[in-house]
Specification:
The complex is a heterodimer of chains A (327) and B (619). Chain A contains 9 helices and 10 strands. With 327 residues, chain A is of the alpha/beta class. The chains are: A alpha/beta (327), B alpha/beta (619).
Chain lengths: 327, 619
């Protein structure tokens, strides 16, 4: 489905030369609710570009990130987005994610920066040996803070959505972080209309969430309507899996230590969310196309984070991670 | 089927009420009934409800909604939370704000983007002080649609009379606040009655269910009837061949070929293209985030606004606004804050705090400052001109935030009422001796008697007679006359249209100062343009500005020609002469119309004195 050709065709849509001459519309208009969400996100992205000294867009390779990238491509066209993308690589991503990133970004001409917490990598921090909580903290949270501080970024655009998790429902669009990148719910600024206070002091920064008001179903409807390429793991296929603690794990490479008696089994699975492969549960599904996924989403009765191991680290775990600087 | 989902848009609403009114239950039910709560979330919720719930083992929706650990421990809601649900027809975003009295700022925040407010009332308790508070904030923030949700009808045995009594009582509040109307719905949220399904328990209620109402009201975003307002957010310049202006249309619509002007400079051009990556658009309306290319290259930067030429926003540095204070550090009138309105940021200060509103009684109270959660009416002054509409006409161009320059906190939110006449900002320091005291010493009211008419019409003659009569009556007077002023204060000005405007502006300012000092000022100026006389009226204050039209036909003026000017103009020696080669715009509604062909100059003066007496300006 997402061959290199699909990505090349997608990238061709954004060739900027065509900005100089008028051309007739080539796509159908979006449904009104998606059009409104899209316009809101574009407005926010432009506000970031116009207001901050050195913004960056966080790119996790997942569907939300890829939608954000698409929105940025549209917001600034015929210019390229006036900020780089940043991927904090935990070294435990699915192999297909790296391949997708490394094909898409050069095709679009995007300034894609990849950061790895080298200290964590040197200590070989590993979700199996050290547990999901420590692995996430070292490779994601600490890695992100290193990259943001090291890059001198004063705004980081993220793909967080308010429907994802309880504490996210209170998140601002422009979420203020102190000089230690910490999030204090009591220091968040009230947001009136679409007039965002973008001012930060030295060392302070902003996390910005342009798709705050989208739901998982909106994201998929938008991907379908706009024909945005995504990592093939979102589509159902036969893949080697094991079931561990009620989580359906994909055996993505030989780093997954099989427990006694465990034997990878081929199942028809897909992913609703992508992260470190040992921490991301799959769902059994027959959805092979975007239309299938949208139909499945409309009927689903479970939340997408159900498959995420880190959310089970205790009630309020996301709020605690946010206070520490996790996205 | 999801594939064919074509919802008509997004309705943003706010729920106002406390936990006791059943607000969490209402929101929880809306989410639940529209299947926005997933099974795994629901089972976690059921567990939590048994552990920490306050509903005796039933689902406690408050636990679903109170998202922060700190809140769950204290059992309070401390901030705005955003909830989504959808029906096949529409997407909804709920701003869930707490009902506590001290959280005015949270409700105002949520209300600022809401199209509709649900005011929750517990049928067994009736209207509470907070009902009035919530309604006032909804009104202040410009929410046009109000739903009065009379909840817990089961506690009053679904009694229609009880419902009607609450509706009647609320009608008085709605009228006082100027709501165009409201929709009252009796319901029992816990049982889901009249939320999605009509309630058999209340057969006397024939109106829509809450969901049916939310699905059917017209979305504000689809109203494209207003004048174009396009604040420029970002200038798109990929290379020397392309220059586009990126922004969101906050009102009106635009299509290629439309004439537009920049609000700041008034420069005019036309829209050439509406550019998107997927081809040019034939038109775009409210809420669209677009990139416009114009026919001419004119100087436009972030913070400017592209607008309809025939209906432009105000461009002013002084204005009156309702202000909500959001910060623990109270408002300091005179302090320089940063004001942000759309993409425009400029230093600004409060020059005068007129009053604060007691939001329980809605009474005005004198105030020197505003503390957090207080609301008041203030005059503000900005360093750069602000481009705005009254908030009641457009929220995006009429609203602004104030930012503390040192902490960078958002400390205030303002809703502009109107521009101030320029002179009203001389209130930087409150004056000890007021104008009323000065008038009392003089024994008469101050006034500016503005004589307008052609050269040679008799303005100065009549003004002289009037001043002589006033002096005889012991009134304190001064006469400003065209020629005299042009010898001194305005000797740098000629007779071009622009200079005539500046001439009148300066005279208006002088007249205003003299009136402030308590004098009765006679002003004799041709003042040929309506707009400048209107400017003088604005400067001086309409209540003490008396326009006297000295109406003499130009033939008589030419025949009189006391200064020989008409002869010079006729010979071409004098140009820009009013009535000859420069227009005179006669007043449409002067306070006094003196027709010199039927009235002597002495009678005219007498008529003016009588007019002043009849209005108690003089004794």
């Amino acid at each position: 489905m997402n061959s290199d050709d699909t990505i090349a065709a997608y990238a061709a849509r954004f060739r900027s030369g065509s900005g100089h001459a008028a051309k007739p519309p080539t796509r159908q208009t979006l449904p009104p609710d998606l059009a409104r969400l899209e316009a809101e996100a574009i407005h926010i992205l432009r506000e970031v570009a116009a207001s901050f000294r050195k913004p960056v867009m966080l790119y996790s390779i997942g569907k939300d990130s890829t939608v954000m990238l698409h929105l940025a491509l549209k917001a600034f066209w015929p210019s390229l987005p006036p900020f780089p993308l940043l991927h904090v690589d935990s070294l435990w991503e699915f192999a297909a994610m790296g391949a997708f990133r490394d094909t898409l970004m050069p095709a679009l001409g995007i300034d894609m920066r990849v950061h790895v917490n080298e200290e964590g990598a040197a200590r070989d921090i590993n979700p199996f040996v050290h547990g999901s909580a420590l692995h996430t903290e070292v490779m994601r949270t600490t890695g992100l803070l290193q990259a943001l501080t090291g890059g001198g970024f004063d705004a980081a655009i993220g793909g967080g959505r308010r429907d994802e998790e309880k504490s996210r429902a209170k998140e601002r669009i422009f979420s203020f972080r102190d000089a230690h990148q910490g999030w204090d719910p009591r220091r968040q600024r009230p947001e009136f209309w679409r007039t965002y206070n973008t001012r930060v002091g030295p060392g302070e920064s902003m996390r910005v969430f342009p798709i705050s008001n989208w739901t998982e179903l909106d994201v998929w409807r938008y991907i379908e309507a706009e024909e945005i390429p995504v990592v093939p793991l979102y589509f159902a296929a036969e893949r080697p899996t094991v079931v561990r603690d009620d989580v359906l794990l994909m055996v993505d490479d030989d780093r997954l230590p099989l427990q006694p008696g465990e034997e990878p089994v081929l199942r028809r699975i897909r992913f609703r969310t992508l992260g470190c492969y040992p921490l991301t549960g799959a769902v059994e599904s027959e959805a092979e196309t975007l239309a299938d996924i949208v139909a499945e989403m409309a009927d689903t009765r479970t939340s997408e984070r159900q498959g995420r191991v880190i959310d089970r680290d205790g009630d309020g775990s996301m709020e605690q991670k946010k206070r520490l600087g996790y996205f | 089927m999801a594939k064919t989902l074509n919802r008509d848009g997004v309705l943003r609403l706010i729920t106002c009420g406390s936990v006791d009114d059943g607000k969490s239950t209402l929101i929880g039910r809306l989410l639940h009934d529209s299947q926005a709560i997933m099974d795994d979330t629901l089972s976690t919720l059921a567990n939590d409800s048994r552990k920490h719930g306050t509903t005796g083992g039933e689902i406690d929706y408050a636990l679903l909604l109170d998202g922060l650990e700190a809140e769950r421990e204290q059992g309070i809601t401390i901030d705005v939370a955003w909830r989504f649900f959808a029906t096949p027809r529409r997407r909804f975003i709920i701003a869930d704000t707490p009902g506590h009295e001290q959280y005015t700022r949270n409700m105002a925040t949520g209300a600022s983007t809401a199209d509709l407010a649900i005011i929750l009332v517990d049928a067994s308790k009736g209207l509470l002080p907070q009902t009035r508070r919530h309604s006032f904030i909804a009104s202040l923030m410009g929410i046009g649609q109000i739903v009065l949700a009379v909840n817990k009808m089961d506690l009053v045995d679904f009694d229609e009379a009880r419902f009607r009594a609450i509706v009647d009582e609320y009608t008085a509040i709605a009228e006082r606040l100027g709501f165009p109307g409201f929709t009252a719905i009796p319901m029992a949220a816990r049982a889901g009655l009249n939320l999605a399904c009509p309630a058999a328990e209340m057969p006397w209620y024939q109106g829509p269910t809450l969901i049916a109402h939310l699905e059917s009201i017209e979305l504000a975003a689809t109203d494209a009837s207003g004048p174009l307002r396009f604040p420029v957010q970002w200038v798109n310049r990929p290379d020397a061949h392309f220059r586009g202006y990126a922004g969101t249309i906050v009102a009106g619509q635009v299509k290629p070929g439309d004439p537009i002007v920049t609000a700041r400079s008034g420069k005019a051009t036309r829209v050439a293209r509406i550019v998107t990556v997927d081809g040019d658009l034939a038109g775009a309306g409210p809420e669209a985030a677009v990139t416009l290319v114009l026919e001419d290259e004119i100087d436009i930067s972030r913070g400017d606004m592209l607008v309809s030429p025939e209906d432009r926003p105000a461009v002013a540095q002084q204005f009156a606004a309702d202000l909500i204070w959001l910060d623990e550090d109270e408002l300091k009138p005179g302090r320089s804050y940063l004001l942000k309105s759309g993409p425009l940021t400029t230093p600004a200060s409060v020059t005068l705090l007129k009053h604060r509103i007691d939001i329980t009684t809605l009474d005005e109270r004198p105030a020197r400052t505003l503390a957090m959660n207080e609301i008041g009416l203030a005059n503000l002054e900005t360093t750069a001109p602000l481009l705005f509409d009254p908030y009641g006409e457009c929220r995006d161009t009429g609203g602004f935030i104030l930012i503390d320059r040192y902490t960078n906190n958002t400390v205030g939110a303002g809703m502009i009422r109107h521009a101030l006449r320029r002179a009203s900002n001389i209130h930087l320091q409150p004056m000890t001796v007021t104008q009323a005291q000065r008038s009392a010493l003089k024994g008469h009211q101050p006034a500016v008697i503005w004589f307008t008419g052609l050269s040679g019409s008799g303005k100065s003659t009549i003004a002289n007679l009037v001043e002589a009569r006033l002096a005889a009556l012991s009134c304190h007077t001064y006469a400003l006359d065209g020629d005299n002023v042009r010898h001194g204060l305005n000797r740098d000005l000629g007779f071009t249209d622009a200079d005539r405007v500046e001439n009148i502006r300066r005279i208006g300012e002088i007249a205003k100062l003299m009136a402030d000092a308590g004098l009765i000022v006679t002003c004799s100026f041709i003042s040929p343009f309506r707009s400048e006389r209107e400017m003088a009226r604005q400067l001086v204050g309409a209540e003490r500005f008396i326009e006297v039209f000295v109406d003499t036909p130009i033939e008589i003026c030419q025949a009189r020609d006391p200064k020989g000017l008409y002869a010079k103009a006729a010979s071409g020696e004098l140009t820009n002469f009013t009535g000859i080669d420069s227009p005179y715009e006669a007043p449409e509604e002067p306070q006094l119309h003196i027709t010199t062909s039927t009235m002597s100059e002495a009678d005219a003066a007498e008529a003016i004195i009588n007019w002043l007496r009849a209005r108690d300006i003089i004794g």
